[in-house]
């Protein structure tokens, strides 16, 4: 059985990160890129929000005894297979996981402009994940 406290804790963490990311998203590209701490903050907030998403997904997969994913990107595919995430979002979430991997392992290759673009266009994908998990929890409580 899925542990509601684990899920709720991670969702709360993601929502806090989203609030902070939305503040950074108010900046113009020039403002954002002009201060290293804006870029560093956005990278960290995105990375840890994605980590929390992966924690939630891994928890559900383990507790429900779904097939074990081989990669972080595949974690979201497993949730799609079980109707927790919509099929049309699978590629988006796989790209989110790949971004996390690049920030963690290939940090020197992540362009600051890419971080800004994700800040402007990608937060809604994280919010949609939270909404899907909340809906799943509502059906399975």
Automatic annotation (TrEMBL):
It comes from Sporolituus thermophilus DSM 23256. Coiled coil: none annotated. Gene3D superfamilies: bsu32300-like. NCBIfam families: HepT_toxin. Belongs to the HepT RNase toxin family. GO terms for cellular component: toxin-antitoxin complex. This is Uncharacterized conserved protein YutE, UPF0331/DUF86 family. Transmembrane segments: none annotated. Keywords: Hydrolase, Nuclease, Toxin-antitoxin system. SUPFAM superfamilies: Nucleotidyltransferase substrate binding subunit/domain (SSF81593). It comes from the Bacteria. InterPro entries: HepT-like, HepT-like_sf, Type_VII_TA_RNase. GO terms for molecular function: hydrolase activity; RNA nuclease activity.
């Amino acid at each position: 059985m899925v542990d509601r406290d684990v899920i709720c804790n991670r969702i709360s963490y993601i929502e806090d990160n989203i609030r902070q990311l939305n503040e950074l998203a108010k900046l113009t590209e020039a403002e954002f890129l002009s201060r290293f701490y804006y870029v560093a903050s956005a990278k960290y907030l995105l990375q840890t929000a994605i980590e929390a998403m992966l924690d939630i997904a891994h928890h559900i997969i383990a507790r429900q005894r779904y097939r074990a994913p081989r990669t972080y990107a595949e974690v979201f595919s497993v949730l799609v297979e079980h109707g927790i995430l919509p099929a049309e979002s699978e590629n988006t979430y796989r790209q989110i996981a790949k971004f996390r991997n690049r920030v963690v392992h290939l940090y020197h290759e992540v362009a600051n402009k890419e971080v800004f673009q994700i800040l402007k266009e990608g937060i809604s994908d994280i919010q949609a994940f939270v909404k899907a998990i909340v809906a799943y929890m509502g059906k399975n409580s």
